[in-house]
UniProtKB/TrEMBL annotation:
This is Sulfur carrier protein FdhD. Its main location: cytoplasm. GO terms for cellular component: cytoplasm. GO terms for molecular function: sulfur carrier activity; sulfurtransferase activity. Belongs to the FdhD family. Keywords: Cytoplasm, Molybdenum cofactor biosynthesis, Transferase. Required for formate dehydrogenase (FDH) activity. Acts as a sulfur carrier protein that transfers sulfur from IscS to the molybdenum cofactor prior to its insertion into FDH. The active site is at C119. GO terms for biological process: Mo-molybdopterin cofactor biosynthetic process. It comes from the Bacteria. It is found in: Cytoplasm.
């Protein structure tokens, strides 16, 4: 498994001095996701929770609907050998084998082969290709959460972001139940990867659809992150920063509660405000 952080020398400059010192950086490496042996996408990610990342990606792309749709998910063997003469895995290529009843993805309409860590949606063939029909829509979910509970979640996410604390360079995503109990926290160089890892955890735990939950992201609420929440059946998406207009539109159409600017004891509730109670 690859390292999450790396050390590099840096020249730290102030108005009065310049000092050379080591700095801890977050690792960014490509990972190729294959389905039934065929390449589907390459994403720049922070190593770790790669199986969750792949399964979360496939669920939010509409390829799978849950754990029963996956037979295996494993790293591919590389060309090198270890000291004992056995083939080594390459930890940057992961293959997911689908159950016989699941159709393989159409790469042309899901995602271009290469995406970046900063934006996944820009790699889509078209906007229409993103607007997938979720099998787990949150519109009928009766979940409610108090504003007080919501206001406590960003601090809990930040406290759980161990790698961010040492590098300052990762996005975080966390899944909570409606009472504020932490279910899963993941970090990644890409905000969409962090969300895919959390949703992939739910796939592994056979907890999809994610009824009665809140997804919190450490940055803004983009269209793609909103789409991922809808695809997983999450009723409440909260962000510490701003939403986009398209994210609000999608949340409104899907029956998702979208909360943004969640800071301190204040927040903006853009859609389905009935789920946030006092």
């Amino acid at each position: 498994m690859g390292r999450v952080t790396a050390r590099r020398r840096v020249k730290h400059v102030t108005m009065n001095s310049a000092v050379a010192r080591p700095e801890t950086l977050v690792v960014e490496e490509p990972m190729e996701i294959r389905v039934n042996g065929a390449p589907v996408t390459v994403t720049m990610r922070t190593p770790g929770s790669d199986v969750e990342l792949a399964q979360g990606f496939l669920l939010t792309e509409g390829v799978i609907a849950g754990r029963d749709d996956v037979l295996t998910a494993r790293y591919c063997r590389g060309t090198g050998v270890d000291d004992a003469g056995f083939s080594q895995n390459t930890y940057n290529v992961l293959d997911v084998r689908l159950a016989p009843h699941v159709a393989p993805p159409d790469v042309d309409v899901t995602r271009n082969f290469y995406t970046t860590s900063s934006c996944g949606v820009c790699g889509k063939a078209s906007l229409e290709a993103v607007q997938l029909s979720s099998r787990h829509g949150p519109g009928d979910d009766p979940t409610t959460i108090t504003a007080q509970t919501l206001s406590q979640l960003p601090a809990r996410l930040r406290k759980a972001q161990k790698v961010f604390a040492s590098t300052g360079g990762l996005h975080g995503a966390a899944l909570f139940d409606s009472g504020g109990t932490t279910l899963a926290v993941r970090e990644d160089i890409g905000r969409h990867n962090a969300v895919d890892k959390v949703i992939g955890w739910a796939v592994e735990q056979d907890r999809v659809p994610l009824t009665g939950t809140v997804l919190l992201v450490s940055g803004r609420a983009s269209f793609e992150l909103t789409q991922k929440a809808v695809m997983a059946g999450i009723p409440v998406l909260a962000a510490v920063s701003a939403p986009s207009s398209l994210a609000v539109d999608l949340a409104s159409q899907s029956g998702l509660t979208l909360v943004a600017f969640l800071r301190g004891r204040s927040m903006n509730v853009y859609t389905r405000p009935d789920r946030v109670v006092h």
